[in-house]
Design goal:
2 copies of one chain form a homodimer. Chain A is of the alpha/beta class and about 550 residues long. Chain A contains 14 helices and 19 strands. Chains A and B meet through helix 2 of A and helix 2 of B.
């Protein structure tokens, strides 16, 4: 099942889409035949926090003081998306792209920090599971950020092999850069000087895990010892394993799906020894010489291995730039759109995005179509011939965008987006129009309507000129909400954090139990795990 | 003389520049030889009010709902400027580009409205004069906006033939679009219903002139009768004459300089009969199907005539988008930079800009270098072999950018800009750094420093990280101000408006004399003409 809105579109385009689909099926079958029956490999690189415009557009490169040669190359040799939407922040975006469902549907709507006792539920079906069941080898390397409970680990979510960071770059805040920015204070109690006024030893958790290595069906292993000396080489190790995974499977004629989601772009993974970009910002240095360089390395590797023509490479950021309270020196900025990470404004949810598939995706394409990251789930499944592995009986927001990839501009099957901030529906987008639901005046429609063609920065809410969209938006939202009564949102998984490890530290084991010296509390100290915080809504400034 | 700042740069690069210049001279001489001794023709198209990014970048086209195919073609076949600075509004920008001097130096720092009794002084030397004296045929068509006194008329400023609008699109406010937007109230008293409370018949001027046709050395002729029926065909007439001028001179083997500065892009010249862009905004319709289409027509014409390889075509907007109090439905917007027309923020002064010169400007270039519109004056002079016609004994801000045009990215000779708003120095730019002078706390340096690489939208003024630029900026400004004591700013021309016409209407003639019924005033009713309004400065919000 898709969102109700999809059926409104299908009802209007079914005939054309049927014809297109038949043609697409033929072209995919032909390609498969050329590749001895093997479906295309899929590589998905998704980095942290970048504004649309900051990669792939040469003149903006020049004006920002850093280059993105591999993204530009992907645009020249493949497809640049002008309107790929994500969820507005890390954890939701990761949940959405992997499950094909808006994060609110899996309860993964909020960014995770140590320690959560929470994570992606085993009931969710991920791209890794869909493709694994279709015979793909699967691997995950990098920033997972989808929880700290055992069932959420990527090797328990369909990936054969993994090396992952369960949260975000929290550890990196303790390097030179982080200290200078006073970025994180006290997340590692052992780094804090004694404070004679401190009464509570439990307020900041110990025992959380920086990185885990895992294989499907096996216990995980804590990787390293939560020290900077272990963190520093992690990014390179993830890159190395990604390349090795690609090579190994290419040589074995084994279809594969590799997800590499770097930690490096947002904050420096290691102190930056030599700054080489004119901008000298963290983003500039780590993206140009880190993630972007690696994207080029992957492209070259695929060409060298002779599998480029049977491999789809999709790369994009997970959400907009971190413009709110960024660590000093990060150098992120709004570019074309208003807002950034966590915002329901376009700047929070519209990201740089590129697809490359020599011989199948025509070179030099700019597509202005709307596409949502959840669409990748459904599209990857179709390309793998695994559409039947997509679960039924639940809403899958992801639409099949094979036609957009293969036919180009104006072949998207989506003209709508529901923008959630946490569990709250903040805005709804339909083509050029956007309605913001938050902060509206009760009893009055309010000037919460935007025209994204003429006002792309959402500076001028309009009531009168867009009044005709009011009831249409209301109808669209009502359908969406009614559908949710039929197919309600699920909960995230809850439980003790960091079980399922072969080598737990004593502090980590202690996380599963109430601290001994709190045993005579007049309440159950673990009851919070199943409790959801109420949300009071947000004002219109987000 | 250039600004003092130039000599700081020359002192550091003289040797390299000398070598470059020798090579450039050889290349220009070679080209001239190939063209039977004729220097290159120059065509300058400058339209109203557009944000950088809104033309020439395909993915932004897609996201804005209109196309700019000719600008994109200029970028593909020529050069896209990432950082061409203009003055922040119409009149100053026009004065600066034509004189090679910041508008403050010629007293043309403020936007003109009917009636001014003011205009570009005959003492100023324009590109038209410089090139005319070098044997070029010269023509001006379109929006002049450089005053209403006789000496300011373009045919009195070096242009052989002209058809021009002395102010802006004020008349167009009375068409369908203008009325709907309530754009101008009362500028044409004859359109106003009787108002029984109105006491003063002189508050809104009558007798101003919509358009003038002129030839060098002759009296001008009022063109049409200040009616919409005369205005409507004006834009097409200007285009037609531009093409005719190009053709005539090409066929006569006569080097020429044509300036076509359209009225149409900002407001609709005529009611838009059929809207064809997805955006449906005025800018979208009039730019895509008006100015941009005409740019393509000029390119094709030059190719057809066989003179494209000996013609430099430069096109750009005169200032940023009109985002402050725009007429309804205009559809302008900030794109990448903060601010718009009239602002000293980047959005006010950084514009879409392209150069095309097949065989001499290499195709597909993006240049991130700084260049100021005044540089066009000096560069055009050099290309015409007319550098010696540039007047001495005054500051010429324009630098020679021949090397940038012919050698490309990073060959600019400018790394600074002085940003004036009216007669006030609002900001100073040096490379990536910008200091805003207005609204600073007296006695404290203030957080008025911006880093344009990492903070292109000027959202985060910084004190500590950019403190080292404080004294450097102060020094730079002091040099600039001291130089002004040596070479003071001039005044604009003052006098009776709209003299020098062969066919003046009685109301127009009346503008030269105090209204008869005000003759017994206790003061001279014309003394205001020579008086300059004091400026109280602006707050930091501009």
């Amino acid at each position: 099942m898709h969102d109700a809105e999809y059926y409104i579109l299908r009802q209007q385009h079914r005939e054309r889409w049927d014809v297109e689909d038949q043609d697409l099926d033929e072209r995919l079958a032909e390609l498969r035949e050329e590749n001895d029956g093997r479906p295309p490999n899929i590589i998905h690189i998704m980095w942290d926090d970048m504004a649309f415009g900051d990669a792939g557009i040469p003149v903006i490169n020049a004006l920002r003081g850093f280059d993105t040669p591999s993204c530009n190359r992907m645009a020249e040799e493949g497809m640049m998306f002008g309107r790929l939407y994500t969820e507005p922040s890390c954890t939701p975006s990761r949940a959405a792209v992997l499950t094909g469902r808006h994060a609110v549907r899996s309860g993964m709507h909020t960014v995770a920090f140590p320690v959560e006792s929470n994570g992606l539920s085993g009931e969710e079906v991920t791209t890794a599971e869909v493709l694994s069941d279709a015979g793909y080898a699967t691997a995950f390397y990098g920033k997972w950020h989808l929880g700290d409970v055992e069932e959420s680990y990527p090797h328990n979510q369909g990936f054969d092999e993994t090396l992952f960071v369960p949260y975000n770059q929290v550890l990196v805040m303790y390097n030179q850069q982080g200290e200078a920015a006073n970025a994180v204070i006290g997340a590692r109690p052992e780094t804090m000087p004694d404070d004679r006024y401190q009464l509570d030893d439990t307020f900041v958790p110990e025992g959380w895990v920086m990185a885990i290595e895992g294989r499907k069906g096996e216990l995980g292993h804590e990787y390293g010892n939560r020290e900077m000396s272990d963190w520093d080489p992690l990014e390179d190790e993830c890159k190395k394993r990604t390349i090795e995974f690609i090579r190994r499977n290419a040589k074995a004629d084994q279809p594969f799906y590799a997800a590499y989601w770097p930690n490096e772009a947002t904050l420096s993974v290691a102190p930056i020894a030599e700054r080489k970009t004119p901008a000298r910002s963290i983003v500039a240095e780590r993206f140009q010489y880190g993630t972007d360089a690696f994207i080029g390395e992957v492209m070259d590797e695929l060409l060298d291995l002779g599998i480029a023509e049977n491999t789809l490479l999709v790369v994009h950021a997970d959400n907009g730039a971190m413009i709110h309270d960024p660590p000093s020196g990060m150098g992120q900025s709004e570019i074309m759109f208003r807002g950034g990470k966590a915002d329901y404004w376009e700047g929070g949810i519209r990201v740089p995005a590129f697809a490359w598939w020599p011989g199948t995706i025509k070179p030099g394409q700019v597509v202005g179509d709307m596409i949502h990251e959840t669409d990748l789930f459904t599209t990857f499944a179709r390309l793998a011939g695994a559409t039947e592995n997509i679960p039924t009986g639940r809403i899958i927001d992801g639409l099949d965008q094979t036609s957009l990839l293969l036919n180009g501009d104006s072949f998207s099957r989506r003209d709508y987006n529901f923008v959630y901030t946490g569990p709250i529906l903040a805005a709804t987008i339909k083509g050029r129009w956007k309605r913001v639901w938050i902060g509206d005046h009760p009893g009055l429609v309010g000037a919460a309507f935007y025209d994204l063609y003429t006002d792309p920065r959402e500076m001028f809410p309009k009531l009168i000129p867009l009044l005709h969209t009011s009831s249409a938006f209301s109808k669209m939202r009502k359908r969406h909400e009614i559908w949710k009564q039929e197919y309600p949102d699920s909960n995230s998984a809850r439980g003790a954090p960091f079980t399922g490890l072969a080598n737990p530290r004593p502090e980590t084991v202690a996380l599963s139990n109430p601290p001994a010296d709190l045993e005579d509390l007049p309440f159950d100290p673990l009851q919070y795990i199943d409790f959801d915080l109420p949300w009071d809504g947000l004002d219109s400034d987000g």
